[in-house]
Amino acid sequence: MLNRVKPAEDPGVVRPGRPGPLPLENYSALGDGRSVALVGTDGSIDWWCVPNMNSAPMLDRVLDEKSGGFFSLTPVGDFTSHRAYRPDSNVLETVFETPHGRARLVEALNSGSGGRLPWCELARRIEGLEGEVTFEMRLVFGTQADTICPFLYTNANATTFHAGSVIGLLRVSDGVQIEEEGDSEIRGHVTVGAGAREIVAIVAGEDEPLVVEDPERISARIDVTDNEWRQWANGVRFEGSYRAEVMRSALALKLLLYSPTGAIAAAATTSLPEGIGGEKNYDYRYAWVRDASYTIKAFLRIGAMAEAKGAFTWLIKRLAEHGALVCYTLEGERLPAEETVIDLPGYRGSRPVRRGNQAAGQHQHGIYGDIFETAARFVAGGHVLDPRSAAVLAGVADRCAETWRQPDSGIWELSERRHYTMSKISAWQALARAVELADGGHIPSTCRERWARSRDRIAEWVDANCWSERDQAYVMVPGESGLDASLALAVRFGFDGRERLEKTLRALDKRLRKGLFHYRYHGVEDHEGCFLACTFWIIEGLALLGHRDEARLRFDEVLSALGDRGAGILAEMVYPETLAYLGNMPQGLSHLALIQTAATLDGCAL
Predict the structure, then answer these.
(1) Measuring CA to CA, which residue among 277, 254, 32, 509 is closest to residue 501?
(2) What positions does the domain GH15-like occupy (predicted)?
(3) Which of 42, 119, 495, 559 could disulfide-link 14, Cβ–Cβ 3.0 to 4.6 Å?
């Protein structure tokens, strides 16, 4: 049973002492194209894997409130905080107000003018605004569930910290006073008056030599990083009425693009629960074909061609190397079939904490539709497939035509293999797009007629087996009455005629909706929150079926309800009564569904 989440205190109000974990919506994200850090409204960074998103965490208090690692810069005494990203940037600013003054904390995972740095650089600049504010600084080293023993080492050049394979330096400006420096923690304080600026930063790497960088150069790179983000954002093609929301989601998706390979992570965290106290705590620091495909389409839709091309190339190469799997590591390898359980308390006692994902051993027909929809959108934008990629895609189409009758684990990666309606529609989608690509001369047409016949057989099978007259909807599994919110995507895919899709969409909205949001499928409401992407899919479906005014009104209501939670960073789910975040974050699927819906409402191409 889901432990009902109480309404969170106003995220802008934080008290000293921190009696328990921060609500997930109190976190925002920093990233550099390789790693992502979560920073709370109290100035504490509670999650950071170094040097990569899928590395073991150096800071992990979000999963272990009492003993986990963290890096905090928190005003002494009572304070309030208000945060926002700089416009068109992933540089975060938090303004702290105390009885004695105001100060701004400017934070970034730095890059250089030539792109990502060859080390990780977490920069935090404190700027005095009014009066005087004293911050306590604490860098507490995580022990990775007591599997490592961090220590400090001093030589003639610097004092370095060592946490497993990670070597790092704490770099501070002259006004920062270090009071304690030990193997487990470095503690200090800094006071800023109006106009004063101080810098606190970590420079880190993995089993590698490390530069001892000047604090002022690190501080200056915050603004270089901001400029780099703005330049990227200037290339985004979206001028509709939702440009601010689309830009923030695009920047969040950019954080999930793993620049060393071009892979797109589903999220930057592991084991943040879908229901507080429950067991639905998964590791999302991998590249799912589904999430990658949807993200590529979102990048194409907003004109981020370099990211779309890089991610699509990565995906095609994985298909050629390993075949059509559900997910891969960010380096492009197969995942181990078994998960590893980590001995940590978990967020608010939600266990187990996991590394790995059971989806690695599953098959989902949905990956076929995702792959071909991506390829179709790519060529629809005027781009070109090379002969090798075209041949790989033709082979995937053959595999889809051969296996679509088999049961699978479905889009929601369920343990029981069944004939899920959405899986069959995804197979139909794949073969419909394969035929279109063959007719356009984009992929070999040798098996075109077989694909066309299989496409038609799937449509006939779905209409004969998956429609319920009693429910007036396509059901999740033939012969049963449960509904699946992902069926809203069938509208975008162009499946069937308007009448049945309209009825299905209305049934989904009626039976899976709670407040403004929607559960994934029938029967999960006692175990998890509402899935944000499903709500966006249903709203987009309404728009595509001609109900644009209704869809726009509902979209505006959802955006208003979410407000500036996470400063625009979205999680996987929300508890519908309190809007408390649930699940891993930043969640790529939530952000890309927002982009697709906004683009559809604003009539953007592709």
Answers:
(1) 509
(2) 241-541
(3) 42
CA pair distance 301, 392, nearest whole angstrom = 24
Q: Is the pTM of this model over 0.85?
A: yes
Per-residue DSSP letters for 419-455? --HHHHHHHHHHHHHHHHHHHTTSS--TTHHHHHHHH
Distance between CA 352 and CA 346 in Å, rounded? 7
Cβ 396 vs Cβ 409: under 8 Å: no
Residue 373 burial (CB count, 10 A): 22
- Asked if residue 5 has pLDDT above 80, the reply is no
* Under 8 Å between Cβ of 503 and 549: no
Amino acid code (one letter) for 129: L
At 65-103, the pLDDT tens digits run: 999 999 999 999 999 999 999 999 999 999 999 999 999
Q: What backbone phi and psi angles, to 5 degrees, belong to 23?
A: -60, 145
Of 600, 602, 582, 520, give the one whose Cα is nearest residue 3. Answer: 582
Radius of gyration of the chain (CA): 24
Indicate the Cα dihedral angle 19, 20, 25, 31, nearest 10°: 100
The span from the CA of 172 to the CA of 163, in Å, is: 20
Whether residue 434 contacts residue 393, with contact meaning beta carbons closer than 8 Å, is answered with: yes
Asked if pLDDT for residue 402 goes beyond 50, the answer is yes
Residue matched to tokens 């952000």: 591
Q: In which region does residue 309 sit, left (phi positive, over 0), alpha (psi from -120 to 50) or beta (all else)?
A: alpha
**pLDDT recorded at residue 85:** 98
∠ CA 28-2-536, rounded to 5°: 50
Beta bridge partners of 104: 95, 127
Domains and CATH numbers, the chain: 13-233 (2.70.98.10)
Q: How many angstroms separate the CA atoms of 93 and 82, rounded?
A: 8
H or E, element range at 594? helix 588-601
